[in-house]
Amino acid sequence: MRPQILSLLFCAALLLCAPAFAQDLPVSRPEALGMSSERLARIGTAVQRAVDEKRVAGVVTLVVRHGQVAWFDARGTADREAGKAMPKDAIFRICSMTKPITSTAVMILYEEGKFLLSDPVSKYLPEFKDAKVLVKPVSGKPYTVPATREITIRDLLRHTSGITYQWNGDLGQAYQDANVASGLLQYDGTIGDSVKRLGPLPLLFNPGDRWEYSLSVDVLGRLVEVVSGMPLDQFFKTRILDPLGMKDTAFFLDDPKAARLAAAYTYADGKGLERFPDKPIVEGSFVYSADYPYRGPKKLFSGGAGLTSTAMDYARFCQMMLGGGKLGDVRILSRKSVELMTHDQLGKIGPEQGFGLGFGVDGVKAPLAEVGSAGAFNWGGFFFTQFVVDPKEDLIVISMAQLHPTGGLTLEQTVQDLAYEALVD
Predict the structure, then answer these.
(1) CATH class held by domain 101-229
(2) Which of 51, 69, 72, 52 shows the shortest CA–CA distance to 61?
(3) 22-42: per-residue pLDDT in tens?
(4) Would the pLDDT of 6 be above 80?
């Protein structure tokens, strides 16, 4: 066979092995997808109004239906002071939207038979053995008692572990004093270092007693490292990000991608919209910054808050979940794992709240508060990013901005509502 033919065959093989949807998701006319162009345009109007009123600097919104893009829009600025327009491929700090990706990593290992969800996490992370629970009496000093049972991997996935965050009034200062990482601030250590410091600290309540948003998913990130034998960033890259073609998703940014990171802003009554300060913001025992993705030691792979991404990259992840664990020809999870992750796992623990394994679940405990579908799953991030995936309507809605505090702005909910109200089939 001639060398030219061999070369062509080799190139063809490379193309066949390329990640699923390595290009952007396909675009189609909204009407061909059962949506109204006129009604989708209301999303742009609402976002532009918030920009004009100086409530937010810039926003990227994306609506996908039946696997195709019906709406993709960027408004305002990525850097207001520099006059830099917001591009569609802007990179955002997605913070807690990292959690569903870490939960997916955990479920990949679960599918390989590496552990059961009912396993105590101390089987793999011994620092959580013999956990104690904080008791605060009406009078006298707080003390601890042995936990009634161990923290399981399921507890970590559904936030029923008894772990909390630095902003908690009872344990936040202890986390701060022990140098436990929040994921939203430079940290001179690894996720392993942070979790080892977290393990011996008291729990807020007995595992399984109630739901408390927490550093549980950072513990899961460390679990992934220990069980897989890989750093979390490499596990993400090889098992999730590269296969899905999420080329702009990472923990830390170097030039030139750092130039695409949207600037972060704050909003407060009396001050209005201001660029996030150069120094971290301190709120009691909770401290957070906006420059951690590109400045500092860059050693902490926070499974609960650390990733940066784009709207289109995250849409690929959502489309995989909507596809029952599959995107194009690439399968990340089984259909049954996705079903488990996106169904309520709290039961009576959270009588008014639906939460699966890494996702909030709408309309399964109480009537829908806004337009939507029962069973749609979702989550958001600290710096004003949000997504919802609706299997019933075969719909994905994503909005990304960089704002905290938000001053009560509810634009992300408006975007979601307007997307649903554009359905016409």
Answers:
(1) alpha beta
(2) 72
(3) 458 999 999 999 999 999 999
(4) no
